[in-house]
Design a protein that fits this description.
single chain; about 240 residues; alpha/beta; 11 helices; about 10% strand; globular; binds 6-O-phosphono-beta-D-glucopyranose; binds magnesium ion
Length: about 240
């Protein structure tokens, strides 16, 4: 069977929640006097909450107990969720609903593969729930991107194999995860620079026009030696 499923990352692809993540981490970082900025925030894309916290704490030299870290993550999440509660469909990427509608009308199965444990709230607030055949999120996995677990779970829920699915991502960690799992990776924004990114979109609304071409693309070869050469940190993720 050819390619017939598209799995979307959520934050930064379908909706612009990334700024709320930034604001909530920034409040915590300011309280701890850590030099957090948009550049550091970019490194948190696709990365789980606790791993994001570790990256932020590494900006300083103090060490914290596990309990303190959990309290900090909870503090950030409370503030982040307060933004989500006030958010609505205006946070969607331009054309998001039209893109999903067009793909589904053309027979594509659609899924979510997100590291976020807040994915259900985001789908509800933006009105996107109902547009997906499968949702896999941060509360259902143990390893976050660049591990392919969340995409593999989404594909399983779609009853498709990885080589029947494309993944749309705005994070390098997400492109690496998609490639590691044998998916066809599509990069938006900075993710287009990630090693091994198979196709690039300038904007989400270009997707329905490009999707036809992907079905004709050669399947992932899983030969990512080149990418590993470029970034050996991800070697494990490629071969599990
Ligand atoms: C990803 C975001 O989608 O979800 C990351 O890109 C975020 O920035 C991660 O850290 C986990 O999100 P949450 O909502 O579970 O804290
Ligand atoms: Mg993202």
């Amino acid at each position: 069977m050819g390619m017939c499923g598209i799995i979307f990352d959520l934050d930064g692809v379908l909706c612009y929640t990334d700024h709320y993540h930034y604001l909530a981490w920034k409040a915590l970082a300011d309280r701890l006097s850590l030099p957090f900025d948009e550049q550091v925030n970019n490194r948190l894309r696709g990365v789980s909450r606790m791993e994001s916290l570790e990256i932020i704490l590494s900006l300083g030299s103090k060490t914290y107990s596990q309990e303190e870290k959990e309290q900090m993550a909870a503090e950030k999440n409370r503030l982040y969720r307060s933004y989500l509660e006030r958010m609505g469909p205006e946070a969607l990427a331009p054309g998001a609903v039209d893109v999903l509608r067009a793909l589904r009308e053309n027979g594509w199965k659609t899924g979510i593969g997100s590291s976020s444990k807040n994915a259900p709230l985001i789908l509800e607030r933006t009105g996107l729930d109902g547009f997906f055949d499968a949702v896999a999120d941060g509360s259902q996995i143990t390893k976050s991107k660049p591990d392919p677990e969340v995409f593999r779970l989404a594909a399983r829920k779609l009853r498709l194999s990885p080589d029947e699915c494309a993944v749309v991502e705005d994070a390098s960690a997400g492109i690496l995860a998609a490639n590691a799992g044998g998916f066809f990776s599509i990069g938006l924004g900075d993710a287009a620079q990630a090693p091994g990114c198979r196709a690039v979109l300038n904007a989400l609304y270009e997707l329905p026009d490009s999707a036809g071409a992907y079905t004709a693309a050669p399947q992932n070869s899983r030969d990512y030696n080149k990418a590993i050469e470029l970034d050996p940190r991800f070697a494990d993720a490629y071969y599990n």
